[in-house]
């Protein structure tokens, strides 16, 4: 029992724990920035879809007719499906908004970690030291 108590007391003053806290603060800032960048991408995508819909409505009801626009709409929809299928083939993730968000978050996080020179190997080492049952390895590919 004394050994466990002495280890926990030693952990409070351990410089590795303080280093991990600093890395966790850095990681939290990187995650916040990555989330905001991905949300911006998603809002831009929403804006483009709204714009496309408005253009199609204008073309269908004022400029052209449904007979002209029907094949155009079909091919645009087919192209969107092909993009979703390509996303699935490249990432092996479900082509949903959540799947897209997670994939883009990983990419943005990786880029920001590179930009900020975040030491993910040291982060994993410190997590394994401070949290012995740590399973969530931060993988950087």
What does the model show?
- The radius of gyration is 24 Å and the shape is elongated.
- Helix 2 packs across helix 4.
- It has helices at 2-12, 15-63, 66-91, 97-115, 120-130.
- The model has no long low-confidence stretch (mean pLDDT 86).
- It is 82% helix and 0% strand.
- The protein is an all-alpha fold and 141 residues long.
**What does the overall shape look like?**
elongated
Percent of residues in helical segments?
Answer: over 70%
Q: Per DSSP, what share of the residues sits in E-state strands of 2 or more residues? A: under 5%
Q: Average pLDDT value?
A: 86
Radius of gyration: 24 Å
Q: What does the largest sheet look like?
A: none
Total beta-strand segments? 0
* Secondary-structure element series: HHHHH
Distance between the termini: 41 Å
Number of helices: 5
* Weakly predicted, low-confidence segments: none
Q: Briefly note the structural class of the backbone.
A: mainly alpha
Overview features:
141 residues
Quick take:
Helices cover 82% and strands 0% of the residues.
Protein topology:
Blueprint: H1 2-12, H2 15-63, H3 66-91, H4 97-115, H5 120-130
């Amino acid at each position: 029992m004394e050994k466990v108590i002495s280890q926990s007391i030693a952990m409070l003053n351990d410089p590795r724990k303080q280093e991990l806290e600093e890395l966790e603060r850095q990681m939290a800032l990187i995650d916040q920035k990555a989330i905001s960048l991905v949300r911006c991408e998603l809002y831009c995508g929403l804006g483009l879809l709204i714009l496309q819909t408005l253009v199609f409505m204008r073309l269908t009801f004022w400029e052209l007719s449904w007979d002209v626009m029907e094949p155009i709409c079909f091919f645009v929809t087919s192209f969107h499906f092909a993009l979703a299928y390509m996303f699935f083939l490249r990432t092996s993730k479900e082509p949903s908004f959540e799947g897209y968000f997670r994939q883009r978050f990983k990419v943005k996080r990786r880029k920001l970690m590179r930009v900020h020179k975040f030491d993910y190997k040291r982060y994993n080492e410190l997590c394994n030291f401070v949290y012995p049952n740590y399973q969530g390895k931060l993988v950087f590919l």
